[in-house]
Amino acid sequence: MPSSWNRSSPSQSSQGMLSAGIRWRQCRSGGTLFVPPSPPRMQRPTGAPFLCLSSSEAHPTAATAACRSSSLAHPWESQSLSQSDYMERDTVLVTDFDDNVVGSASKRASHEFAADQPHGIVHRAFSVFLFDASTDELLLQQRASSKITFPNVWTNTCCSHPLHGMDPPEVDGPKDVADGTVRGAKRAAVRKLEHELGIPRDELGADAFKFLTRVHYWAADAVTREESPWGEHEIDYLLLATVPSKSDLTLAPNPEEVDDVRWVGRAELLDMFDDKSLLFSPWFRIIARRWLVGTEDEVGAAGWWDDLDRTMNTDDRCDYGTIHRFDPPAEFMGGAGGAGPLF
Less packed terminus of the chain by CB within 10 Å, N or C? Predict the structure, then answer.
């Protein structure tokens, strides 16, 4: 048994599950490890990270119910959870470097950068880029100052994670990636766009998204705070969508998630990149310059944004088989684990 595991009593909320033979152990991150009875619901493959779940995460119906939208004016008004609550409750999909799901972990555990895991734990994510087709503008968000990871930074429309135990499921397999359907990642995108930006699901459904490719990156959150114990290490599914006009889209940003939003054209975005007073997420800056605007396109062709009609309505720009990998700029290395180049 690893030294970081200690037997502990379950919380009151999980007492009723003991009669079913469910066992709990305390994880280093403060979460609770769920050890399912035999036959196990999920077995940890050799060498895979341990499953670090809180009591609510170990019960899929509880996690699912908490994610459902309400009938209030804004979907996020029904959410009373803090950012710390989400870090403990949300259960991300842990993968190997080839994007095979090998387990799950709390968002807190997977984003911890420490001496024993200087690059955190690699997990699956998605990034949404939402465009106004009438003006050719991209919707940006500024992450809330209360966010635990990368607060205050400007980034693409929405960045988050497919979760374990959701209904409908948010887990994609190799076949889903190979044929470009990735319904799990798209469902997660719909869920988070509603939660973060208040976009109703009937205005932007899963069928609206175009899956382009995957990127594997990591970054320590070393710019917003010194010796940061947090960072990102993700295999990120890039999803593009368009709306006919921004006037047709309901936007009601959740102040716990988003400080500001802005629709920008390509020239304005590049000007923003040059503005030293603005912070940007490292993944967005790299993705934008390498693929969106074409200034650093690997094959010298126009970027995805240069011809949205072609990007959205053909498969010319799709690359399902490649996982593009990159280290962050130097200022996003280090952190509490002293993380250095990985690729």
Answer: N
Closest CA to 220 of 232, 202, 209: 232
Longest dimension (CA), the chain: 62
Catalytic residue of the set 88, 196, 234, 257: 234
b (16+ CB within 10 A) / e for 248-273: ebeeebbebbbbeeebbebeebeebb
Q: What is the pLDDT of residue 37?
A: 32
Within 10 angstroms of residue 289's Cβ, the number of other Cβ atoms is: 17
The bridge status of strand 158-160 relative to strand 6-7 is unpaired
Catalytic status, residue 234: yes
Q: Does the CA dihedral 270-276-278-283 come out positive or negative? A: positive
pLDDT digits (tens, 9 = 90+) for 248-276: 999 999 999 999 999 999 999 999 999 99
- Catalytic-residue membership of 232: no
Catalytic residue among 27, 67, 158, 159: 159
Q: What is the pLDDT of residues 156-198, one digit of tens each?
A: 999 999 999 999 999 999 999 999 999 999 999 999 999 999 9
